[in-house]
Amino acid sequence: MKDLETMELKISKFLRVGVVISGIIIAIGWAMSLKPGTDPFAPLQTYSAFNLLDSIQMHVILQNWGKIIAYFGLTILITLPVLRVFLSVILFIKQKEKTMALIGAIVLIGLILSFSLGIEA
Predict the structure, then answer these.
(1) Which of 5, 63, 111, 113 has the most CB atoms lying inside 10 A of its own CB?
(2) What are residue 81's phi and psi, to 5 degrees?
């Protein structure tokens, strides 16, 4: 039981550090995107429908590295819960908790499917 609590504590600390790091990366990206003398909210006044891949490609072409860095931080933030579920499944398998490992695996598959189905081609 002590080993389980130690692993849970390590996973929890890893997630906290991951959230802080991703927040710092997002903040750096946003700060890099600000241009002196311009309204930072001006692009938000009109809606432009772009899928994520087109948006990233456009920012690479325009060399808007601030937005790309912010997307990277957001990607880290989104993958943290998936990683948490994956590590929990591994932990349950090591503890020989078959029912919990199965439930965790089903949740992991559901998360992966939800992300996969949400991507526009």
Answers:
(1) 111
(2) -65, -35
Q: How many residues does the chain have?
A: 121
Domain count, the chain: 1
The DSSP 8-state label assigned to residue 120 in this structure reads -
Cα–Cα distance between 46 and 92 in angstroms, integer?
A: 48
26, amino acid identity: I
Q: How far apart are CA 84 and CA 18, in angstroms?
A: 11
Task: Return per-residue pLDDT of the chain as tens, 121 residues.
Answer: 677 778 788 888 989 999 999 999 999 998 988 888 777 777 777 877 777 778 888 888 888 888 899 999 999 998 998 999 998 899 889 888 899 999 999 999 998 888 888 766 5
Neighbours of 50 (CB within 10 A): 11
Cβ atoms of 90 and 46 closer than 8 Å: no
pTM value is 0.76
Host domain of residue 79:
2-118
